[in-house]
Specification:
about 280 residues, alpha/beta, Rossmann fold, eight-stranded mixed sheet
Length: about 280
């Protein structure tokens, strides 16, 4: 029977073109995990003269470079960045006579892949360390800090680790802060965010979904150096400071006047990092 004019007709039918809840969940996962690539991959100045190794990972081959012999510093860039972030630090490490390994994360730069979140970072770290190690120190920027902590939780071992502009230590469990933060930025309904997180966690397995960044940072045997600017426009300073202050074996350097990416390239920061990961030329 057709409804009479002027009456309200309830319907569960979606409008043509309106995404379903499942579509919204998948779209949010894609936006969170699939980085936008630059049209042309960038290469750090010192690496431009070298041919990259193609290291196989579960997510495709990643481009990686090694400079020097012996135990090396592994450099891990952040989301929608690439190895060129580390150009000033690479130059400084070379001056210190320190071996280093840099690479482009999956789905970044010259590397293959379409998705990159914490566990893609972990798999890439493990593969690059196996192929181009030994590795005795690691430096990470931004979201890659969480990947380094997760790698440490799964058996990756270094003597010293540096976290620059890190959101990882604010994470309570399973990367939730990242999901919530991006949901708020995009105006995504909370029920979509929570469903997307659950679907992603189901895809990585219960063990990885239960990863606790703070517990790993508390228990690691590595000496930690954490650097964060009070003016970081992407990772707020106050919660980062609160998380770091409780950690053992940590040096916390408070910076001022630096934005999120420039923190990793500032000359004073670069010098401080190089000294920390090169104890034979600095402090023991």
């Amino acid at each position: 029977m057709s409804p009479r004019a002027g009456t309200t007709h309830a319907s569960n039918t979606r409008c043509v073109g309106e995404p379903s809840f499942e579509d919204a969940v998948d779209e949010f996962i894609t936006r969170l995990t699939c980085p936008r690539r630059l049209r042309e991959p960038r290469v750090a100045d010192h690496l431009a003269k070298l041919d990259p190794a193609a290291v196989s990972t579960p997510h495709g081959r990643v481009a990686a470079w090694r400079v020097g012999a012996g135990p090396a510093v592994l450099l891990v860039h952040g989301f929608e960045d690439d190895n060129s972030l580390w150009s000033p630090l690479i130059d400084e490490l070379v001056e210190h006579g320190r071996a280093l390994v840099a690479f482009d994360l999956p789905a970044h730069g010259a590397s293959e892949g379409t998705r990159c979140l914490t566990w893609e970072v972990v798999d890439a770290i493990d593969a690059v360390a196996d192929a181009l190690g030994p590795i005795d120190a690691v430096v990470a920027h931004s979201f890659a800090c969480g990947g380094v902590l997760a790698a440490l939780a799964e058996g990756f071992t270094v003597d010293r680790a540096v976290f620059v502009a890190s959101p990882a230590l604010m994470t309570v469990r399973g990367g939730g802060d990242r999901w919530d933060r991006h949901g708020a930025r995009l105006g995504t309904p909370d029920e979509v965010v929570q469903a997307a997180r659950a679907k992603y966690n189901a895809s990585i397995g219960a063990g990885r979904a239960a990863f606790d960044a703070q517990a790993t940072a508390n228990s690691t045997s590595a000496e930690l150096l954490v650097l964060h600017s009070t003016d970081d426009e992407r990772m707020p300073f106050a919660p980062a400071e609160a998380a770091v202050r409780s950690l053992p074996r940590v040096q916390f350097v408070v910076l001022h006047g630096l934005n999120h990416r420039r923190t990793a390239r500032d000359p004073d920061v670069v010098h401080r990092i190089a000294e920390f990961v090169s104890p034979s030329s600095g402090e023991e």
